[in-house]
Amino acid sequence: MALFGFDRIIYEFTLYRSGRFLGEPQDWVLLTNHGDSYMEKFLGNDHINKVPMMHWALANTGACSWRWMSNPGNLTEEEKTVVAFNLTQNVTAGYTISFLSVMERTKCATALTAKPGISQDDVDAVWAKHGDEINLMNNVMHLKIQTLPYFQRSLAKRQHEVLQWVGDGKTTQDIAILLELTPATIEKYLRLARETLDVETTAQAVLKAAFYNQMFVIESEAA
């Protein structure tokens, strides 16, 4: 992206949005090369839930110039505070890409920030010439990330196994027979899986593990 004039990126994916609320931070995938000083303030002041282009992304699919923010009436007073903060951080021009969501509560978008000194007019000119290519590259990146297993804490091997069997419709007794373990041991692994995924029920654990691509993971053998 730097070759096109975008030297900073924020990529965010949430599974549990509700209206303009992005869900709990522990359930986000957030990737960026913005500096720590910027991100600490951006997240610490909850700007991420107030940023105007994120609100645009939640309601739209496709690419949008940040010129949208300068249109009269498009910004709330709360959103204007985020724009003012970004101005102090040389985050002044760019483009936002909102990726297609297949489920209502999921959303993913990326914010491409132009290098300091590049105007929005310059960015729009670049997009007019290379926008299709930039959009394609970001969508390929997005699809690649979506196929990777991720979570702050990964499931252990036995936790994977018992959740996989639950997903196949097996009961605790069934799984105990299949794995040659006691039902109490199976219940322990299910409890640990629920704790790891921070959910209350086993059904929620299966769903969340599936969302995070942790249900069927091939583990490599140690060399």
| Gyration radius from CA atoms, angstroms | 21 Å
Strand order of the largest sheet: 2-1-5-4-3
Can you say what the CATH homologous superfamily of the largest domain is? Answer: Transcription factor LuxR-like, autoinducer-binding domain
Number of domains: 2
Gross morphology is elongated
Distance between the termini: 37 Å
Helix content, binned percent: 40-55%
Which runs of at least 5 residues are low in confidence (pLDDT < 50)?
Answer: none
CATH topology of the largest domain: Beta-Lactamase
- Number of strand elements: 5
Which class of secondary structure composition applies to the elements? alpha+beta
Itemize the secondary structure elements and their pairings:
Layout: E1 6-14, E2 29-32, H1 36-44, H2 52-59, E3 62-65, H3 77-88, E4 94-98, E5 107-114, H4 120-146, H5 157-167, H6 172-179, H7 183-197, H8 202-211
Helix pairs in contact: 5-7, 5-8, 6-7, 7-8
Description of the molecule:
- The protein contains 8 helices and 5 strands; from the N terminus they run ββααβαββααααα.
- Strands 2-1-5-4-3 form a 5-stranded antiparallel β-sheet.
- It has 2 domains: 2-146, Beta-Lactamase; 157-211, Winged helix-like DNA-binding domain superfamily/Winged helix DNA-binding domain (Arc Repressor Mutant, subunit A, Orthogonal Bundle), CATH 1.10.10.
- It is elongated, with a radius of gyration of 21 Å.
- 45% of the residues lie in helices and 13% in strands.
- It is α+β, with helices and mostly antiparallel strands and 223 residues long.
